[in-house]
Write a structure and sequence with these properties.
heterotrimer, A alpha+beta, B alpha/beta, C alpha/beta, A: alpha+beta, Cytochrome-c3 Hydrogenase, chain B, three-stranded antiparallel beta sheet, 8 strands, 12% strand, globular, B: alpha/beta, Rossmann fold
């Protein structure tokens, strides 16, 4: 099973050209390089080359203390930093044997789901740009700025929050936060229909995404895909339903599935997931319990020797953290099971036989973030 | 035409009232340069998302005349937004070399200023100024879009101080580069 | 099917395996006796519906990490006469059993039945070779390349075992505990 190659289709023998897609490219969503061997418009061989953003965080985490690693965790999937914080904190809390109080859990859910909406808005905007539509980008970021205002209210930062901490959350939210969030949700619900009108039912968009890059469920599971990429192929695997943590079992929401596993399904699953996220946030805010937001965690965090694994449904898929402790103040080993890293591997097979423009559509629909891929 | 323009500054010095022509020319050229800075789309990591937010609806970069260009051949500014991994260092230098003069670099975020939170990593370049010259540094992790605006405004001030006498047009710029922004006029 | 049934079936076929002494908290963890058991166990589990390879990683048990693996320039601190103090190397935890071995950790999921199981297999650091699981799970492709790049584990049978994350000029395997960083042209 070497890197697959498509057979030449036409009787005329043309030259093959080797073209670099990236690492600087407006549509690769970061520093991804794909070495494409093309025959005309057809891709014959694709070799993704990653590592252009490899920062060595897994090694750095072995010398940072447990709370310091939360800062590094923000920067894996920087489009939805709250879920990274949550996955890391859940893993270390399992090592410590600590459970966050209920109010902290509910706040964690609110912030993670708001971040999921913000991250999917980035996808709607940038996928539109990839396909050629610039306007949805401006609309999506208009809504996203409102979410970032809410995050600024609670955590103080716009992108890398360091809000979810070991044992709970950094600080409580004010009443104003809950009011503003409800205002935002009331404003946002009709906007999702607006995105559907603007982009999803646009005939050019449909032509470019329907039927392109179709993945069967079996193939998706084989390649270890997760998140909307897997659910678009019809596999109902959502960590929030599989292993609910932080009280997700209390909130009513559906798993959004697609039928064909093509680019349109992957994109539209994310749009519909935004609707489900809105429902979760409303339920969480309605049932927000009173109480402390931080459990009793020692000042110097030194978990007993052991290993723990925690995974959450990040915006891009199943984000898992495998943490090993040897009893000191720094993690002994921290492995990040990054969804984008595992999702990206399938491209070496999926690109083959596609046209160049379709390859861009497929790459965009996978919604990768290179911070996660390269860590 | 190139020879005429190169000799333009010397000719103006000799003429009576020539320095007035030079300063007016300087002002006109610098005004047009600073009002239409076209950056190459060069987001590396998290700072790129804040850079995109700076382009987007709330903080509209277009009102500065800033339009992102995908190709470095058509750009005059490179905003290095994000961590510079050592693997990425050679492509960055290549892209910088592909930009035509006068070209400027804004280092956005602490990772490209000095390595940032990855200051002791085996795989991170401790600051993009180790490989390319930087004009403005923006602190932050990531810097707010307003900080990026301030950096662009500082760059505009810097551009406004450029002097024709010092840079002397295309031939001299190609030889010496446009780092000499009017200080040694 | 419950996880106990799966484990019981596994133990009946591979009696040398056992429940891990250091399990991953809240998950069923199986310690395989040797690396020869790895592929047969993986295919047995795949037949029972564990078709989803979640995670493939490794742990190096040699000891606390060496400071030579990091690029720490002395920080000129004007407020302290001697500059900033160097960070001391992490001390070994008393009572922790460091050993000259590595462990490969596999996480398999059975999506229809909602089961997860961890597999662990030990091997010596000086002979870091494992059979490749790419034939069974395609998601092992890049994860094995990452383990090769960062730990130096050679996976036999992998079709494309090349560096994936680190730069070409980086020598050594960074996540090993005794990795000493060789200064390259960017560390001047």
């Amino acid at each position: 099973m070497s890197v697959p190659q498509a057979p030449s289709r036409s009787p005329m023998k043309t030259d093959q050209l080797f073209v670099n897609l990236g690492p600087q490219h407006p549509s690769t969503h970061g520093v991804l390089r794909v070495g494409l061997t093309i025959e005309g418009e057809l891709i014959v061989k694709a070799e993704p080359d990653i590592g252009y953003l490899h920062r060595g965080t897994e090694k750095l985490c072995e010398i940072r203390t447990y709370p310091q690693c939360i800062v590094l965790s923000d920067r894996w999937d920087y489009c939805s930093a709250m879920t990274n914080n949550l996955a890391y904190c859940l893993a270390v809390e399992r090592l410590l044997g600590v459970r966050a109080p209920e109010r902290a859990d509910a706040l964690r859910v609110v912030h993670c789901e708001l971040n999921r909406i913000a991250s999917h808005l980035i996808l709607v905007g940038t996928y539109g740009i990839d396909i050629g539509a610039f306007t949805p980008f401006l609309y999506a970021f208009r809504e996203r700025e409102m979410i970032l205002d809410l995050f600024e209210m609670s955590s103080g930062a716009r992108l890398t929050y360091n809000y979810i901490r070991l044992g709970g959350v950094m600080r409580d939210v004010t009443k104003e936060f809950a009011e503003k969030t409800r205002e935002f949700l009331a404003y946002f619900k009709p906007r999702i229909d607006e995105y559907d009108e603007l982009l999803s039912y646009n005939p050019i968009f449909l032509d470019r995404t329907k039927g392109v890059g179709a993945l069967s469920a079996k193939r998706a599971v084989e390649w270890g895909l997760s998140g909307p990429n897997l659910r678009a192929s019809g596999v109902a695997y959502d960590v929030r339903k599989w292993e609910p943590q932080c009280g997700y079992e209390k909130y009513p929401f559906k798993i959004v599935l697609g039928k064909n596993g093509d680019c349109f399904d992957r994109y539209h699953c994310r749009v519909r997931e935004m609707r489900e996220a809105v429902k979760i946030i409303e339920a969480a805010l309605d049932g927000l319990p009173e109480g402390p937001v931080m459990a009793k965690v020692p000042k110097v965090v030194k978990p007993a020797p052991g290993e723990a694994y925690a995974h959450v449904e990040g915006a891009r898929g199943d984000l898992g953290i495998y943490a090993v402790s040897d009893g000191t103040a720094c993690p002994y080993r921290l492995h990040v099971r990054a969804p984008s890293f595992v999702n990206l591997a399938i491209l070496q097979e999926l690109f083959v036989g596609q046209k160049l423009a379709d390859a861009i559509a497929i790459l965009g629909s996978f919604d990768i973030v290179l911070g996660e891929v390269d860590r | 035409m190139g020879i005429v323009l190169d000799a333009f500054a010397d000719a103006c010095e000799v003429l009576p009232g020539g320095s007035g022509i030079l300063t007016t020319t300087d002002a006109l050229i610098n005004w047009s340069r600073k009002s239409s800075i076209w950056p190459v789309t060069f987001g590396l990591a998290c700072c790129a998302i804040e850079m995109m937010a700076a382009y987007a609806t709330r903080f509209d970069f277009d009102r500065f005349g800033i339009i992102p260009r995908p190709s470095p051949r058509q750009a005059d500014l490179m905003i290095v937004a994000g961590t510079v991994a050592k693997k990425m260092a050679d492509p960055i230098v290549q892209i910088y070399r592909q930009m035509p003069e006068p070209r400027f670099v804004i280092s956005m975020g602490s990772c490209s200023n000095c390595g940032g939170p990855y200051y002791d990593s085996y795989a991170v370049l401790k600051g993009v100024d180790k490989i390319i010259p930087v004009d403005v540094y923006v602190a932050g992790c990531p810097p707010r879009p307003e900080s990026l605006y301030f950096a662009v405004m500082k760059l505009q001030e810097k551009i406004f101080e450029m002097k024709w006498k010092a840079t002397r047009g295309a031939a001299r710029q190609q030889a010496a580069g446009s780092r000499d922004l009017g200080a040694a006029a | 099917m419950s996880i106990e049934e799966v484990i019981a079936r596994l133990f009946s076929k591979f009696p040398a395996s056992e429940k891990s002494a250091a399990p991953v908290k809240d998950y069923a963890t199986i310690q395989l006796r040797s690396r020869e058991d790895l592929l047969p166990v993986l295919s047995l589990l795949k037949e029972q519906g564990f078709a989803y390879l979640d995670m493939l990683s490794a742990v190096d048990w040699k000891g606390p990490v060496l400071m030579e693996g990091y690029v720490r320039e002395m920080n000129p601190n004007a407020l302290q006469p001697g500059g900033a103090a160097a960070r001391p190397a992490p001390a070994p935890a008393p009572g922790f059993a460091y050993r000259d071995e590595m462990t490969a950790v596999y996480l398999l999921s059975n999506l229809p039945d909602r089961l997860k199981v961890f597999l662990k297999v030990d091997f010596p650091r000086s002979d870091a070779v494992l059979p490749s699981a790419v034939g069974l799970f395609k998601s092992a492709d890049w994860q094995e390349r990452e383990a090769y790049d960062l730990f130096g584990i050679a996976f036999e049978g992998h079709p494309n075992l090349k560096k994936i994350l680190t730069a070409q000029f980086l020598e050594g395997h960074p996540l090993r505990k005794d990795y000493a960083h060789v200064r390259d042209r960017f560390d001047a």
